[in-house]
Amino acid sequence: TVITPTGHPYVGVDFAKRLCGVSIIRSGESMEPALRACCKGIKIGKILIHRVGDHVLQQDTIYEKLPADIADRYVLLMDPIVGTGETAVKAVQVLLNKGVQEDHILFLSLIAAPEAVHRVCRAFPKLKLITSEIDEGLEAYRVIPGVGEFGDRYFCD
């Protein structure tokens, strides 16, 4: 509670449920500053998923660092570009294996291919997928028209 300049008390915003963010490394890390700006002190975990050889559809989780109490939280899963949806599916499976309820996962992206939206929503019908744009589709597993390699552009590689 704070006293406003007019002398009246204002009770601030409080989250109804416990939140945490989880970024899919590396591009998802670009969304962390905005999350921290609006949710000060929020816990943020990370998941690194790597393609097996040249097989875009074969992926392994090679690193995860998640809050110990993640099963008791609502999770904002962050990845700015979602192409095939395979990485998203793998990341959601990691969260489910840690005890997170499917309906407690909100997948946040900036751009998604329709194929990814269908893939993720069919696999996890209780999950909420939030994106700012659904592009035309995929070409050689890349979102078109898309923005290219988001992580490389954001991190200036």
UniProtKB/TrEMBL annotation:
It comes from the Eukaryota. Its EC number is 2.4.2.9. Keywords: Allosteric enzyme, Glycosyltransferase, GTP-binding, Nucleotide-binding, Transferase. This is uracil phosphoribosyltransferase. Belongs to the UPRTase family. GO terms for molecular function: GTP binding; uracil phosphoribosyltransferase activity. Coiled coil: none annotated. It comes from Auxenochlorella protothecoides (Green microalga). Pathway: Pyrimidine metabolism; UMP biosynthesis via salvage pathway; UMP from uracil: step 1/1. Residues 1-155 form the Phosphoribosyltransferase domain. One of its GO terms (biological process) is pyrimidine-containing compound salvage. Its cofactor is Mg(2+).
